[in-house]
Specification:
With 847 residues, the protein is of the alpha+beta class. 37% of the residues lie in helices and 23% in strands. The protein is built from 23 helices and 28 strands. The strands form four sheets. Strands 1, 2, 3, 4, 5, 6, 7, 8, 9, 10 and 11 form an eleven-stranded mixed beta sheet that branches. The longest helix is centred in the N-terminal third of the chain and has 68 residues.
């Protein structure tokens, strides 16, 4: 009995010892030192720790293991608590924003209800009037509504009179605040911009107001003064800003400042002139601690000094706009942004007016761009973004800005930069401009590396064209991923050689010559992945023994943006410039590339129908013309303007040769882009017609009947239930089937090629019926899929069908597509002979 009690006491003491150990401060300090070096030490490391630290000699290795487990758990809990606190602060601030937005919308609803009642009353009074003065009464009834927002007419105010400028500034401030937090503008939330803790913010565009306007509010983790400093540096985030000159700074009595500003902006395409602004910017603080920067143009109607006109620019007007920056509890800021401009749309060709009348494009270019830039810097400052390659984020941003700026300079070709027009060859499709003093806009460091002692300069070949039914994001993504479809390796080699001290003497474009492949090396991307900066390695091979110089790898610094198909009004762009292997921070850049801007048509007028025909004249070949009855007025219809610009260096004695090469090359690129655009244009199937029968194939109705009958014969089930007895019912249901159904040829001496696909199949492959025949079956399957198909092929031919497991295939654009199951079966014709193979990919989706 005594022995039993002694054993129980020993076991209890051992259990208590293993359950809890009280560590001394010295022991905790020693363990913390090890934890900072290795949070999860191995068993050998823990034993070594006990041997090396005498103060830990009385602690078991198991207890030390438990201490490290608890320490890691506490660290994880601390990080999670910090993350939840951050999310809670964001949600609290976002809730405040949404409550303010709700109040604003309620005021707007009340205002509209009042206006509706007033108009009903006036219409009732007008209809009850029987005299000839009825028209006069109707006209008079509209006067009170027009007087709600009268246009103020001010006398001319002297720029040297601070009191006069302060009056203009205070008026601009009041109007800006009424737009930012009031109901001065009828705002409509922009599609796809849902508020949330991780969203860009709440974005809205104007409806039925003079000019175009956009409004946004969001949260950032920077203090108001830092936010104001970033927003004032407009050229750093507004890619269309060519220059911003502060001509005068006048302090105000309240501690604010008034600035007189002249700003120039680039034209987005070669088909229109650039814009400039003469504005007054007012920076001040409100009583609640908020910081405000508002801005408006100075014109004869607003009062104040109007700047002198510039013949190279069209004067645009900035209506009261600006930034309201409020400090947020717990740190950070709440930002309200309003951009409101009148771009003088009537001065551009009618087909391009949607570029200057679209609030969505303004929102993407200015309003959202400002918010994204601030969020980017905020995350870089907090260390949330880590870039590889040893490059600082500011350096990478500078590369992106230089690429965009160089491309914009090439597209616009301003005379004050030294650009002049070169004579054409009789055809006006490609514009050639030369710059014999490129150091003026490229920088002095370019003189020794890019131009020889013979003298030379930069030549730019550019063209613009209209595209129809081609999504800009899809086109730019194709140009990025399939460079061999449009680029010429010889021209790329010439451009790369210009970085050397002795460039090639005579450039020679080789038609269709792209012997190497490209490898895209990611360098950086923005927070929301709307812009990518990357290095492209062009792997070269020699054409012949005398072309060994062309065999070396070449490198391009490339900027790709706007490839998100869901971004409304976003411009898609691919800009690149040759670089050498050293890739220094101040490396010379001579950008070329593509820009595709969507045209936002007016849906309530005939203008869109009239300009539609202009785009159709740009299509080449008999296949490009579409019959009048093919297009459904209510079907998918997207127009966009494509701008292409390529820059080359030249020596004076070879200027004509380089110009001829550049003109020929741009025409070749235009032709390639047109072919690509026609291939990737989404199919439009109206309700009264089926897909076009392919040359050499049976009629579409017959093929649809064969596919369904063969599926029933082989599997014993129905592919789908026919709901109608109409002759084309089977074809319509097959075409609109939710699963991708594709047919491919069965040839013993050639790889299977696709011959037919329903709408889901075309969407999955990201192609059209015309381009479908160029896609081979083995090209869309991955290695595992090809092995499974080879193992099941004999079963398909003998049994007539086979079920294939879930897998991954690849679209024609290189995007991976997952599917839950695939069914393959033989399609028999009316003579029960093998006609083709059919595949159905069930529940497919892009990865």
């Amino acid at each position: 009995m005594a022995l039993s009690m002694h054993n129980d006491s020993a076991n209890k003491q051992q259990m208590d010892t293993s359950k809890y150990v009280r560590y001394t401060p010295e022991q905790v300090e020693a363990l913390e030192r090890v934890y900072s070096e290795c949070p999860k030490p191995s068993s050998l490391r823990r034993q070594q720790l006990i041997r090396e630290c005498p103060i830990l000699s009385n602690i078991e290795p198991k207890q030390i293991k438990v201490w490290f487990q608890n320490r890691r758990c506490r660290e994880k809990q601390r990080k999670e608590a910090s993350r939840l606190q951050t999310v809670n602060r964001k949600l609290t601030a976002m809730n405040k924003l949404l409550m303010e937005e709700n109040d604003r919308l309620q005021k707007q609803v009340s205002h509209l209800v009042y206006e509706n009642g007033y108009m009903k009353q006036q219409l009732h009074s007008a209809s009850g009037t029987t005299t000839d003065n009825s028209c006069e009464s109707v006209v008079m009834s509209g006067q009170p509504q027009q007087q709600q927002n009268p246009t103020p007419q001010h006398p001319q105010r002297d720029a040297n009179n601070p009191a006069g400028l302060l009056a203009i500034a205070e008026e601009a401030l009041a109007e800006f605040l009424s737009k930012a937090t009031g109901t001065a503008v009828d705002w409509v939330q922009m599609i796809g911009m849902k508020p949330g803790p991780d969203s860009i913010g709440i974005v809205a565009v104007s409806r039925n107001c003079s000019g175009v306007a956009a409004r946004a509010c969001g949260l950032v983790s920077l203090e108001p003064t830092k936010v104001a400093e970033i927003l004032k540096d407009r050229p750093s985030w507004f890619r269309d800003c060519r220059c911003l000159d502060v001509l005068s700074v006048i302090p105000t009595g309240s501690g604010g400042t008034i600035e007189l500003i002249y700003m120039q902006t680039y034209a987005p395409t070669t088909l229109a002139a650039a814009r400039d602004y003469w504005t007054l910017r007012y920076t001040t603080s409100l009583e609640d601690g908020s910081l405000v920067m508002c801005e408006r143009s100075l014109t004869t109607s607003t009062g104040g000094p109007a700047g002198p006109p510039n013949t190279s620019f069209v004067r645009a007007e900035m209506l009261p706009s600006g930034y309201l920056i409020r400090p947020c509890e717990g740190g950070g800021s709440i930002i309200h942004i309003v951009d409101h401009v009148d771009l003088d749309a009537w001065s551009v060709p009618e087909v391009l007016r949607p570029l200057y009348e679209s609030s969505k494009i303004l929102a993407q270019k200015m309003t959202i761009a400002a918010l994204r830039h601030i969020r980017q810097i905020a995350q870089e400052t907090s260390g949330e973004i880590q870039y590889g390659g040893g490059r600082q984020p500011a350096v990478l941003r500078t590369f992106s800005q230089r690429l965009c700026r160089g491309f914009n300079d090439a597209v616009n070709g301003f005379a004050d930069d030294g650009w002049s027009l070169m004579g054409s060859d009789g055809v006006e499709d490609v514009t050639i401009m030369i710059n014999s003093s490129p150091n003026k806009f490229l920088g002095s460091q370019y003189g020794t590396s890019m131009f020889s002692t013979f003298g030379g300069g930069v030549l730019c070949a550019k063209a613009s064209m209209l595209l129809q039914n081609v999504p800009p994001a899809l086109l730019v993504r194709f140009l990025r991923e399939h460079r061999s479809e449009w680029a010429d390796y010889g021209v790329d080699a010439y451009s790369a050689a210009c970085l050397k001290a002795s460039p090639y003497a005579v450039p020679c474009a080789r038609p269709g010559g792209f012997p190497g492949s490209q490898v895209i090396l990611p360098l950086a991307h923005t927070v929301e992945h709307e812009e990518f900066l990357e290095v492209v390695r062009l792997e070269g091979h020699a054409f012949s023994p005398e072309d060994v110089a062309l065999a070396r790898d070449m490198y391009l610094l490339q900027l790709c943006s706007g490839v998100d198909e869901n971004a409304i009004g976003a411009c898609a762009q691919l800009v690149f410039a040759p670089i050498d292997e050293s890739f220094a921070d101040d490396a010379p850049l001579l950008p070329s590339g593509f820009r595709v801007i969507p045209l936002d048509p007016k849906t309530d007028g005939p203008a869109a129908t009239r300009t539609l025909d202009l785009a159709s004249t740009l299509e080449v070949g008999a296949g490009g013309a579409r019959p009048d009855g093919e297009a459904d007025p209510n079907s998918y219809n997207l127009r966009s303007v494509l701008t292409i610009a390529f820059q080359f260096t030249f020596e004076n004695h070879l200027r004509e040769n380089v110009a001829a090469m550049a003109r020929q090359y741009v025409r070749s690129v235009v032709g390639s882009v047109q072919r690509v655009a026609m291939a990737i244009s989404p199919s439009r199937l109206s309700s009264h017609m089926g897909p076009k029968p392919l040359p050499g194939s049976p009629e579409a109705l017959t093929l649809a009947r064969w596919i369904c009958r063969s599926y029933r014969i082989h599997t014993g089930g129905e592919l789908f239930r026919v709901d109608s007895q109409a002759g084309d019912a089977i074809l319509k249901q097959l075409w609109h089937h939710s699963d991708a159904i594709l047919c491919c040829s069965v040839k013993t001496n050639a790889s299977p090629v696709f011959t037919f696909a329903n709408q889901a199949g075309l969407d999955m492959l990201e192609t059209t019926l015309v381009a479908l025949q160029d896609i081979m079956l083995d090209k869309i399957l991955d290695e595992a899929g090809r092995k499974i198909l080879c193992s099941e092929f004999s079963k398909i031919m003998q049994q007539g069908f086979a079920y294939l497991p879930a897998g991954i295939c690849v679209s024609s654009m290189g995007r991976p597509v997952s599917y839950e199951q695939a069914v393959a079966w033989k399609v028999l014709n009316d003579d029960d002979s093998n006609h083709c193979l059919a595949f159905m990919f069930i529940n497919w989706s892009f990865v």
